[in-house]
């Protein structure tokens, strides 16, 4: 039922206004239909109650008619019994006179039967022919009950005709006989009953041993036939579209059964109320019409603003926030909704402007950000792409050096001020036609809309010169430098992403080569393309044992003994051959894979350690650590696991750390180094003198050794300044209780100078190049033999 109703209403297909009107009309129709059904049932119930009451009255009226007829007969019989002549004729036995008197008196009062009975109730005279045995039998049967009540009357069935009889005594002065009178209950009496009460009458008679039959009736022929078919026990008779309610009146007849059926038409009683029902139906139709019109108006009053709000929401979805929302003037829920939509429109517009600011502008420097910079360059390239005479454009990408160090030492607040100062300097040094943007972090970029490669390099030089003067903030002065990369369109790239990427490649090359600024070179980029598959190849190399451990000896300068060796990694590529470290170590550091390389080196060195030891001549293994190793909080635990694996003590290893690795995150590096020192590892500062570390950090770090960078050692025999630096470093280290290793020893002169300056250890090609493990063992044997000789 519910599904059918929803289907009829067309839920999901009709518009809201149509559904509101349809639902309202349906509810009203249901209410009105229920009302009409209730009214009709009430009318029918009241009609039946009225008929029941009328039939009760009809019963009394019918019996009253019979009583009146009986009274009329008694009066006529009494007159005849009081007639002197009639009594004289009875005394004399004059039968002819008696019959004549009976006929005359019967005709006068309408009695069809008049008779004279003697004291023994024997029939002496009858106005009818004496040959009617049924009448004679009926008179003989009714005399006994009539004699018991002098004024009584009774109904008797004569044949199939009901008769009403009365009997009065004939006195002279004693009772000398009885006068009997009777008449048939005929159609006239039934018609009188219909006239008086409006009730139809039907007489049912049933002689002894005979079926019941209808003696008389006021019913139409069709109803009479229906009554004959229904039988004698019917209480309600259905006749076509009408119902006849009946009431049975038993007349207690002698000689058979006599019943009177009183019938009342239900339609006749209901007929006066049909007009009321018709009026109600008209009112219902008019109500539906008016309610439909009202519902349509109300639904449109609701749905029309909703449609306008839907259109407003669609405009908001398209990003059109200028047109105000309609119906905000209404003082109802629709008005509240419209006002809410309008406030949402305004808030979205404000948020959109803020988002655009955040999306296209850097909030710190107020410069365009990467997205706006890219869109501007892209739009310019698209405009010039089909123009053969279009001017070239150039992109200069700039990255600050040691900016993270500034943040760590001076704090992020000063770092933000530094970025704003850099932006200001760039804006001052660039022409108005250039666009300066901050791409993110400490990276900036400039687009020159009409510049070739030579002009762009001049602009890059101008930017580099802008960093020569230090930046001053309150009482703090900061020396800052930058690395710049230049790429041009259409010379170096045909689209915006390639152009920006190649400018960044050139910038990284400048940072790596320390040349301040570089112009993009396709040769540089081709090597970077090779690194796309390098990471997976490195993983494969570790898993399939393509890496090799090489050792370079460290010699004690005081006695010439081999006391240590620096572990170095080499890659034996199945296709490329022996890959030099410079070809994959920087990439491994950039991607973070250097941590796996460090663990591989330590694992391999620990595995080889026992085989490299000689009685009385312990050999210490030195392993280089990267910045990512020091920032890994789990790194000391990983080394512990490898030591346990090979049953080697940490005192057999020296861990070398560059100054730059320490200064990237001094606090974190310091914590890691302390944990390593506590475990028993010897710690060494590699490439000392080339970084930016301070003596304060050097004093705090738990290091045991300084390793002087080869750039100072190799030139100390020719350059007095390099010699002074080496001598000062040795003295500084010894004063701090540290040992000193000099790397880059390539001739005997440098060897002797280092011995004179009390350097502890030396490392370099003069003694040996890096060798495989087996080659190192053979070399050490030869070195020992030569030292003894």
UniProtKB/TrEMBL annotation:
Please name the InterPro entries in this protein's record: Cyclic-di-GMP_PDE-like, dCache_3, EAL_dom, EAL_sf, GGDEF_dom, HAMP_dom, Nucleotide_cyclase, Rev_trsase/Diguanyl_cyclase
User: Which CDD domains does this one have?
Assistant: EAL, GGDEF, HAMP
Tell me which domain of life the UniProt entry assigns to the organism this sequence originates from: Bacteria
User: Membrane-spanning regions, if any?
Assistant: 278-299
Identify the residues that the record assigns to the GGDEF domain, covering every copy.
391-522
- PROSITE patterns registered for this protein in UniProt: EAL, GGDEF, HAMP
What residue stretches are annotated with the HAMP domain?
Answer: 300-353
- Per UniProt, residues of the EAL domain are 531-784
Ordered alphabetically, the record's keywords are: Membrane, Transmembrane, Transmembrane helix
**PANTHER family, alphabetized:** CYCLIC DI-GMP PHOSPHODIESTERASE PDEF (PTHR33121), OXYGEN SENSOR PROTEIN DOSP (PTHR33121:SF71)
User: What's the protein here called?
Assistant: Diguanylate cyclase (GGDEF)-like protein
């Amino acid at each position: 039922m519910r599904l059918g109703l929803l289907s009829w209403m067309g839920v999901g297909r009709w518009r809201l206004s149509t559904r509101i009107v349809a639902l309202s009309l349906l509810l009203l129709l249901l209410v009105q239909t229920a009302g009409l059904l209730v009214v009709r049932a009430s009318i029918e119930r009241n009609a039946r109650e009225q008929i029941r009451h009328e039939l009760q009255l009809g019963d009394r009226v019918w019996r009253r008619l019979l009583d009146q007829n009986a009274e009329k007969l008694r009066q006529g019989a009494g007159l005849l019994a009081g007639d002197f002549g009639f009594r004289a004729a009875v005394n004399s036995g004059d039968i002819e006179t008696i019959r004549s008197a009976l006929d005359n008196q019967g005709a006068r009062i309408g009695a069809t039967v008049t008779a004279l009975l003697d004291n023994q109730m024997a029939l002496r005279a009858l106005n009818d022919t004496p040959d009617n045995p049924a009448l004679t039998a009926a008179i003989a049967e009714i005399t006994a009950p009539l004699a018991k009540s002098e004024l009584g009357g009774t109904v008797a069935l004569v044949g199939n005709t009901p008769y009403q009889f009365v009997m009065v005594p004939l006195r002279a002065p004693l009772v000398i006989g009885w006068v009997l009178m009777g008449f048939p209950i005929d159609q006239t009496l039934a018609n009188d009953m219909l006239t008086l009460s409006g009730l139809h009458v039907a007489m049912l008679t049933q002689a002894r041993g005979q079926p019941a039959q209808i003696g008389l009736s006021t019913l139409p022929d069709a109803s009479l036939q229906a009554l004959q078919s229904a039988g004698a026990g019917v209480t309600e008779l259905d006749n076509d579209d009408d119902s006849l309610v009946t009431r049975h009146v038993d007349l207690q007849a002698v000689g058979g059964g006599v019943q009177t059926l009183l019938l009342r038409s239900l339609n006749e009683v209901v007929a006066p109320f049909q007009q009321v029902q018709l009026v109600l139906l008209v009112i219902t139709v008019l109500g539906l019409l008016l309610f439909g019109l009202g519902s349509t108006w109300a639904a449109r009053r609701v749905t029309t603003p909703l449609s306008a709000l839907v259109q407003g929401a669609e405009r908001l979805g398209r990003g059109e926030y200028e047109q105000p929302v309609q119906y905000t003037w209404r003082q109802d829920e629709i008005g509240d909704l419209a006002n809410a939509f309008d406030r949402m429109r305004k808030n979205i517009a404000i948020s959109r402007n803020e988002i655009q600011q955040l999306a296209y502008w850097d909030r710190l420097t107020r410069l365009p950000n990467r997205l706006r910079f890219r869109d501007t360059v892209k739009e310019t390239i698209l405009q010039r792409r089909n123009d053969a005479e279009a001017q070239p454009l150039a992109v200069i990408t700039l990255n600050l050096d040691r900016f993270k160090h500034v943040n760590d030492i001076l704090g992020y607040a000063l770092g933000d001020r530094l970025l704003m100062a850099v932006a200001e300097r760039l804006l001052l040094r660039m022409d108005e036609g250039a666009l300066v943007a901050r791409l993110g972090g400490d990276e900036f970029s400039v687009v020159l809309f009409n510049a070739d490669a030579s002009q762009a390099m001049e602009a890059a030089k101008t930017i580099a010169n802008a960093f020569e003067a230090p930046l001053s903030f309150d009482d703090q002065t900061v020396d800052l430098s930058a690395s710049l990369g230049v790429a041009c369109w259409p010379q170096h790239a045909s689209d915006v992403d390639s152009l920006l990427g190649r400018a960044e490649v050139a910038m990284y090359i400048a940072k790596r080569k320390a040349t301040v600024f570089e112009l993009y070179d396709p040769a540089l980029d081709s090597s970077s393309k090779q690194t796309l598959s390098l990471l997976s190849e490195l993983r494969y190399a570790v898993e399939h044992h393509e890496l090799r451990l090489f050792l370079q000896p460290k010699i004690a300068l005081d006695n010439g003994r081999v006391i240590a060796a620096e572990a170095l990694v080499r890659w034996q590529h199945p296709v490329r051959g022996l890959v030099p470290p410079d070809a994959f170590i920087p990439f491994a550091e950039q991607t973070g894979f250097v941590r796996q390389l460090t663990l591989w080196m330590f694992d391999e060195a620990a595995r080889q350690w026992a085989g490299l030891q000689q009685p009385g001549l312990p050999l210490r293994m030195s392993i280089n650590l990267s910045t990512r190793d020091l920032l890994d909080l789990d790194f000391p635990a990983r080394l512990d696991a490898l030591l346990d694996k090979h049953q080697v003590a940490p005192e057999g290893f020296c861990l070398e750390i560059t100054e730059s690795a320490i200064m990237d995150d001094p606090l974190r590096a310091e914590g890691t180094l302390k944990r390593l020192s506590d475990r028993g590892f010897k710690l060494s500062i590699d490439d000392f003198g080339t970084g930016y570390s301070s003596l304060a950090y050097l004093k705090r770090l738990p290091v045991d050794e300084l390793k002087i960078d080869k750039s100072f050692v190799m030139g100390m025999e020719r350059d007095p300044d390099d010699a002074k630096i080496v001598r000062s470093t040795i003295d500084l280290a010894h004063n701090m209780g540290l040992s000193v290793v000099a790397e880059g020893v390539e001739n005997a002169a440098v060897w002797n100078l280092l011995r004179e300056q009390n350097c502890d250890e030396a490392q370099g090609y003069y003694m040996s190049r890096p060798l495989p493990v087996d080659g190192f063992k053979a070399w050490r044997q030869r070195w020992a033999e030569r030292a003894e000789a």
